[in-house]
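Action item from last week, closing it out:
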Amino acid sequence: MNTKKSGAQASGKAQKPAARAKSVSRPARMKTIDLETVLSADRVTISRGRERVELPGDVVSALRQYATELARGGRPRLVAITEDKATLSSQQAADLLNVSRPFVVKLARTGQLRHTKTGNRHRFALADVLEHDARARRERDDALSEIVPADGYDESDF
Protein backbone atom coordinates (compact mmCIF):
# COMPACT_ATOMS: atom_id res chain seq x y z
CA MET A 1 0.00 0.00 0.00
CA ASN A 2 1.09 3.51 -0.70
CA THR A 3 1.24 5.46 2.59
CA LYS A 4 2.57 8.63 1.01
CA LYS A 5 0.15 11.51 1.49
CA SER A 6 -0.69 14.10 -1.10
CA GLY A 7 0.22 17.74 -0.51
CA ALA A 8 -3.28 18.63 0.73
CA GLN A 9 -3.40 15.71 3.18
CA ALA A 10 0.13 16.32 4.45
CA SER A 11 -0.66 19.94 5.29
CA GLY A 12 -3.68 18.90 7.36
CA LYS A 13 -6.29 20.44 5.06
CA ALA A 14 -9.24 18.26 4.17
CA GLN A 15 -9.60 17.63 0.48
CA LYS A 16 -13.05 17.71 -1.13
CA PRO A 17 -14.07 14.40 -2.72
CA ALA A 18 -15.11 16.09 -6.00
CA ALA A 19 -11.74 17.80 -6.35
CA ARG A 20 -9.92 14.57 -5.58
CA ALA A 21 -11.87 12.67 -8.22
CA LYS A 22 -10.95 15.24 -10.87
CA SER A 23 -7.26 15.01 -10.02
CA VAL A 24 -7.02 11.25 -10.56
CA SER A 25 -4.89 10.65 -13.61
CA ARG A 26 -6.24 8.59 -16.48
CA PRO A 27 -3.75 5.69 -16.10
CA ALA A 28 -4.65 5.33 -12.41
CA ARG A 29 -8.30 4.74 -13.34
CA MET A 30 -7.59 2.08 -15.94
CA LYS A 31 -7.68 -1.55 -14.93
CA THR A 32 -4.25 -3.08 -15.37
CA ILE A 33 -3.34 -6.74 -15.65
CA ASP A 34 0.14 -8.13 -15.21
CA LEU A 35 2.06 -9.20 -18.30
CA GLU A 36 2.14 -12.90 -17.36
CA THR A 37 -1.64 -13.04 -17.30
CA VAL A 38 -1.89 -11.37 -20.70
CA LEU A 39 0.75 -13.56 -22.30
CA SER A 40 -0.71 -16.80 -20.96
CA ALA A 41 -4.11 -16.07 -22.53
CA ASP A 42 -5.24 -17.57 -25.84
CA ARG A 43 -6.72 -14.26 -26.92
CA VAL A 44 -6.70 -10.76 -25.51
CA THR A 45 -9.28 -8.00 -25.76
CA ILE A 46 -8.09 -4.45 -25.33
CA SER A 47 -10.68 -1.81 -24.63
CA ARG A 48 -10.63 1.93 -24.27
CA GLY A 49 -13.94 3.54 -23.58
CA ARG A 50 -16.39 1.95 -26.00
CA GLU A 51 -13.70 0.82 -28.43
CA ARG A 52 -12.70 -2.84 -28.25
CA VAL A 53 -9.95 -4.60 -30.17
CA GLU A 54 -9.42 -8.34 -29.93
CA LEU A 55 -5.90 -9.62 -30.54
CA PRO A 56 -5.92 -12.97 -32.33
CA GLY A 57 -4.02 -15.92 -30.90
CA ASP A 58 -1.17 -15.53 -33.40
CA VAL A 59 -0.50 -11.97 -32.22
CA VAL A 60 -0.59 -13.02 -28.55
CA SER A 61 1.79 -15.87 -29.39
CA ALA A 62 4.19 -13.44 -31.10
CA LEU A 63 4.05 -11.14 -28.06
CA ARG A 64 4.71 -14.13 -25.79
CA GLN A 65 7.80 -15.09 -27.81
CA TYR A 66 9.02 -11.49 -27.84
CA ALA A 67 8.59 -11.13 -24.06
CA THR A 68 10.27 -14.50 -23.42
CA GLU A 69 13.27 -13.46 -25.51
CA LEU A 70 13.49 -10.15 -23.63
CA ALA A 71 13.30 -11.97 -20.28
CA ARG A 72 16.21 -14.21 -21.31
CA GLY A 73 18.27 -11.12 -22.02
CA GLY A 74 18.10 -11.61 -25.76
CA ARG A 75 17.58 -8.99 -28.40
CA PRO A 76 14.39 -9.96 -30.22
CA ARG A 77 13.82 -8.40 -33.59
CA LEU A 78 10.61 -6.69 -34.54
CA VAL A 79 8.88 -8.09 -37.57
CA ALA A 80 5.84 -6.56 -39.18
CA ILE A 81 2.86 -8.86 -39.21
CA THR A 82 1.78 -9.23 -42.81
CA GLU A 83 -0.09 -11.62 -45.06
CA ASP A 84 1.13 -15.21 -45.34
CA LYS A 85 2.17 -14.71 -48.96
CA ALA A 86 4.13 -11.51 -48.34
CA THR A 87 7.16 -11.14 -50.59
CA LEU A 88 10.31 -9.20 -49.90
CA SER A 89 12.88 -7.59 -52.16
CA SER A 90 16.51 -8.60 -51.76
CA GLN A 91 17.16 -5.41 -49.75
CA GLN A 92 14.22 -6.07 -47.43
CA ALA A 93 15.39 -9.66 -46.91
CA ALA A 94 18.92 -8.40 -46.22
CA ASP A 95 17.61 -5.90 -43.67
CA LEU A 96 15.60 -8.63 -41.95
CA LEU A 97 18.59 -11.00 -41.84
CA ASN A 98 20.99 -8.20 -40.90
CA VAL A 99 23.31 -8.97 -43.81
CA SER A 100 24.21 -7.21 -47.05
CA ARG A 101 22.01 -7.32 -50.15
CA PRO A 102 24.74 -8.99 -52.27
CA PHE A 103 25.02 -11.75 -49.63
CA VAL A 104 21.26 -12.40 -49.88
CA VAL A 105 21.57 -12.63 -53.67
CA LYS A 106 24.46 -15.09 -53.20
CA LEU A 107 22.31 -17.18 -50.85
CA ALA A 108 19.57 -17.22 -53.50
CA ARG A 109 21.93 -18.15 -56.35
CA THR A 110 23.55 -20.98 -54.36
CA GLY A 111 20.14 -22.40 -53.40
CA GLN A 112 20.46 -21.69 -49.68
CA LEU A 113 17.49 -19.28 -49.74
CA ARG A 114 14.38 -20.03 -51.80
CA HIS A 115 13.36 -17.27 -54.15
CA THR A 116 11.49 -16.39 -57.31
CA LYS A 117 12.55 -14.01 -60.02
CA THR A 118 10.44 -11.23 -61.43
CA GLY A 119 12.34 -10.00 -64.43
CA ASN A 120 15.88 -9.65 -63.15
CA ARG A 121 14.77 -9.07 -59.54
CA HIS A 122 14.86 -11.65 -56.76
CA ARG A 123 11.74 -11.96 -54.61
CA PHE A 124 11.66 -13.82 -51.31
CA ALA A 125 8.68 -15.14 -49.37
CA LEU A 126 8.69 -13.79 -45.82
CA ALA A 127 8.20 -17.32 -44.46
CA ASP A 128 11.27 -18.54 -46.40
CA VAL A 129 13.45 -15.70 -45.09
CA LEU A 130 12.33 -16.34 -41.49
CA GLU A 131 12.90 -20.08 -41.94
CA HIS A 132 16.42 -19.45 -43.27
CA ASP A 133 17.13 -17.13 -40.34
CA ALA A 134 15.98 -19.74 -37.81
CA ARG A 135 18.03 -22.45 -39.55
CA ALA A 136 21.15 -20.24 -39.63
CA ARG A 137 20.72 -19.42 -35.93
CA ARG A 138 20.43 -23.13 -35.05
CA GLU A 139 23.54 -23.93 -37.09
CA ARG A 140 25.48 -21.11 -35.38
CA ASP A 141 24.35 -22.23 -31.94
CA ASP A 142 25.28 -25.85 -32.69
CA ALA A 143 28.73 -24.84 -33.98
CA LEU A 144 29.37 -22.70 -30.90
CA SER A 145 28.22 -25.43 -28.51
CA GLU A 146 30.69 -27.86 -30.15
CA ILE A 147 33.71 -25.64 -29.48
CA VAL A 148 32.77 -24.66 -25.92
CA PRO A 149 34.05 -27.09 -23.29
CA ALA A 150 31.32 -29.18 -21.62
CA ASP A 151 32.19 -27.75 -18.19
CA GLY A 152 32.41 -24.19 -19.53
CA TYR A 153 35.24 -21.72 -19.12
CA ASP A 154 36.94 -20.48 -15.96
CA GLU A 155 39.29 -17.58 -15.30
CA SER A 156 42.44 -19.57 -16.11
CA ASP A 157 41.24 -20.03 -19.71
CA PHE A 158 41.65 -16.32 -20.32
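Closing note: The longest helix spans residues 126-147.
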